[in-house]
Amino acid sequence: MGARCSKFSFCWWHSHLKSSSVLQSADLENGEKNEKNAFPSFCDYSFEDLRIATDGFSSENIVSEHGEKAPNVVYRGRLHNGRWIAVKRFNKSAWPDTRQFLDEAKAVGNLRSERLANLIGCCCEGEERLLVAEFMPNDTLAKHLFHWENQPMKWAMRLRVALYLAQALEYCSSKGRALYHDLNAYRILFDQDGNPRLSCFGLMKNSRDGKSYSTNLAFTPPEYLRTGRVTPESVVYSFGTMLLDLLSGKHIPPSHALDVIRGKNFLMLMDSCLEGHFSNDVGTELVRLATRCLQYEARERPNAKSLVTSLLSLQKETEVPSYVLMGIPHGTASPAEPLLLTPTGEACLRMDLTAIHEILEKAGYKDDEGIANELSFQMWTNQMQETLNSKKQGDAAFRAKDFTTAIDCYTQFIDGGTMVSPTVYARRCLAYLMSEMPQEALADAMQAHIVSLDWPTAFYLQATALFILGKDNDAQEALKDATKYEAKRNKN
Q1: Which helix (H) or strand (E) holds 21?
Q2: Phi, psi of 131 (to 5 degrees)
Q3: How many CB atoms lie within 10 A of CB 211?
Q4: Is the separation of the CB atoms in 30 and 38 below 8 Å?
Q5: Closest alpha carbon to 26 in 160, 176, 167
Q6: Which carries the bigger pLDDT value, residue 125 or residue 208?
């Protein structure tokens, strides 16, 4: 059932990519940095993997801006290893040519940069076409620029967004992927460190309708309106519209902005929230750069490399981390909401395995009710009796806290294959935790989730294993899910 890159669909990678300065090059590939900057490898995922990861493509997990009725919807999901992902599910008619889809996905999947929300896998089964990317937990540039709630985006951060975006485009160009479709403020995402990244999804077009722009025609490059084709220069034009967004805090049509600029009163373009917080010299330079990008003749626009050079010299507060400039808590998906934890949740947070053992022991097998176990008369054989006996012996060992024996007996029951019990997976999970085998414990907690999708205990045990593995962010997310499902269960 897993992605075909490793057992249990586990593509382990380090997600916290650090750079000592915003001036660092964006061209960071596998092998060019030390191990702590390793990127995820590209995997083929099964449709079932992604269905489970997204809770059945639940509308609650839609993160794309245009909602459920859009032809291609992006969902938030979580893999078996607890990692969050973004899953783009295409309209069934979007990619009729299987080979073209796979070739295109693998080509984009070869790119690896800390300036991109990297493509880490795909799925191509029947008519289904899905892309899997790193999940960026801190919303889009559109949200922070146009719909901010707590504070407007700071001038230094706007300059950093422009630079990082230019570096992303330069990296893609250097790897032969200079075409980007529909570059706009919704395509810039913020990672766990508050750093802006360019969505990899725009590097792939919809193969059937060939549309490269979904935005208002007032923002599309003039040559696209003439020919319907995207060129590298078209991408630079769209970059110019992004510079206008950053300057003004609004989505201003380029024709209107250029009229203002020709009137030599660029201050009229500037976001009023920035008053007194930027220098006229840097503002003038950014306006000049936007104007060059928005030239009617494509050949008169700068290339991505010269954009990077121009923007490097304009940077401010380069040693201040992005999450500080953005005003977001470090390493969390969003400002933390206090969780009203149950006793089980408290035990998970404390990693109190003894308390969890007592809770599991007290709960018994009541949560296995309703799990499909089709047992025909023929199955009541000696083998069946042996399977049930191994479970009984496992329960006795679990009660006596003989966790090594419990693991052996529960493994015999599971390997017997005649019955499925999420509780047995949960108990073996705890036995693994007690035996200092958190990786195996996490696999069992995930398996319990697969058997019983909305079972709070499975999420609680995932959280505990992830806390022990030092993956606190993922553990907190699992704890949130556990609390949510337990509240829903208590309401019913």
Answers
A1: none
A2: -115, 145
A3: 12
A4: yes
A5: 167
A6: 125
- Pairing status of strand 84-89 against strand 128-134: antiparallel
Paired sense of beta strands 73-78 and 84-89, if any: antiparallel
Distance in angstroms (rounded) separating the CA atoms of residues 43 and 389: 40
Question: How many whole angstroms separate alpha carbon 414 and alpha carbon 409?
Answer: 9
Is the backbone of residue 31 left (phi > 0), alpha (psi -120 to 50) or beta?
Answer: left
Task: Please compute the mean of the pLDDT values over residues 102-106 and round it to a whole number.
Answer: 93
Q: How far apart are CA 17 and CA 353, in angstroms?
A: 32
Residue among 189, 156, 160, 185 at smallest CA distance from 274: 156
At 15, is the pLDDT very low, low, confident or very high (cuts 50, 70, 90)?
very low
- Provide the token pair at 445: 């907690």
Three-state DSSP at 238 gives helix
Structure tokens that stand for 104 in this block? 């295109």
Catalytic residue among 49, 182, 245, 395: 182
Phi, psi of 121 (to 5 degrees): 175, 175
pLDDT in tens, 171-184: 999 999 999 988 99
Select, from the ranges 144-158, 160-174, 217-231, 264-278, the one with the highest average predicted confidence (pLDDT): 160-174
Q: Are 140 and 186 in contact (CB under 8 A)?
A: yes
Q: Is the four-CA dihedral 375, 380, 386, 392 of positive or negative sign?
A: positive
Buried b (16+ CB within 10 A) or exposed e, 78-108: bbbbbbbbbbbbbeeebbeeeeebbebbeeb
Q: How far from each other are the two terminal CA atoms of the chain, in whole angstroms? A: 31
User: Is 193 assigned a catalytic role?
Assistant: no
Q: What is the pTM of this model?
A: 0.66
pLDDT at position 376, please? 44
In terms of Cβ atoms closer than 10 Å to its own Cβ (0-12, 13-18, 19+), residue 483 is buried
DSSP per-residue letters across 28-89: --TTTS-GGGPPPPPEEPPHHHHHHHTTTT-GGGB-STT-TTSSSEEEEEE-TTS-EEEEEE
CA-based nearest residue to 124, from 44, 222, 27: 44
Strands 116-117 and 196-199: what pairing?
parallel
Instruction: Write down the H helix ranges in 265-402.
Output: 280-293, 304-312, 322-326, 343-350, 353-363, 382-399
The Cα 157–Cα 163 span in angstroms is 10
d(CA 473, CA 483): 16
CA angle (480, 335, 462) in 5-degree steps: 25
* H-state helical runs in 294-342: 304-312, 322-326
Q: What pLDDT is stored for residue 123 in this prediction?
A: 95
User: In this structure, what are the phi and psi dihedrals at residue 87, rounded to the nearest 5 degrees?
Assistant: -115, 115
In a 13 Å sphere around the CA of 252, the CA atoms on its Cβ side amount to 23
Structural tokens at position 54 = 């997204």
Q: What type of residue is 83?
A: R
- How confident is residue 387, by pLDDT bands cut at 50, 70 and 90? confident
